[in-house]
Amino acid sequence: MTNHNDQAQPHDDRSTTGGAPTPEELREQITHTRDELGRTVEALAAKADVKAQAKQKTAAVKQEASEKAALVTEQIREKAEHAADLVRDKTPDPILEKASRAAAQVRETTARAGQLASEKTPDPILERAGHAATAVRANRTPLLAAGAVLVVFLLIRRGRGRK
Q1: CA gap 41, 100 in Å, rounded
Q2: Between 18 and 121, where is the model more confident?
Q3: How far apart are CA 59 and CA 116, in angstroms?
Q4: What is the pLDDT of residue 6?
Q5: Do the beta carbons of residue 72 and residue 43 sit within 8 Å?
Q6: pTM of the model
Q7: What is the pLDDT of residue 109?
Q8: CB 67 within 8 Å of CB 49
Q9: How far apart are CA 37 and CA 2, in angstroms?
Q10: Interatomic CA distance for residues 78 and 76, integer angstroms
Q11: H-helix segments, 49-92
Q12: Using an 8 Å Cβ cutoff, are 154 and 98 in contact?
């Protein structure tokens, strides 16, 4: 609530007018009281508006969560880049070269096998294979990554088997 001592009080001329306030003084007091009452009602309404308070709190929590999510995402991205760099640095060049050559051979062999298969396969089956190839092309990156991992794994396993 508003403290009466903090507010500017209207000038009290009762001593000069015989103790009764003038109509102007009464108007000033009424205006002052209305202003004070309006501020008090607004403050009480703000405290009682639970829905608005909940919206403000929700917005603040949402903003904080968004900032934290962005921070965590950036940290994960940095760690993933660091891990990829470590893998590249730790993998010997001969293995990387072998993996690259093996991937090229797989692509060539696959192309040849596809051509032979298309020459000898009936049309309805070719049509179904075309749909499957479209699906594979749509997911090319994960499939190539899995193939590269498999090739590296096989090369490492093969290299260990010779020892």
Answers
A1: 76
A2: 121
A3: 62
A4: 47
A5: no
A6: 0.33
A7: 92
A8: no
A9: 9
A10: 5
A11: 50-90
A12: no
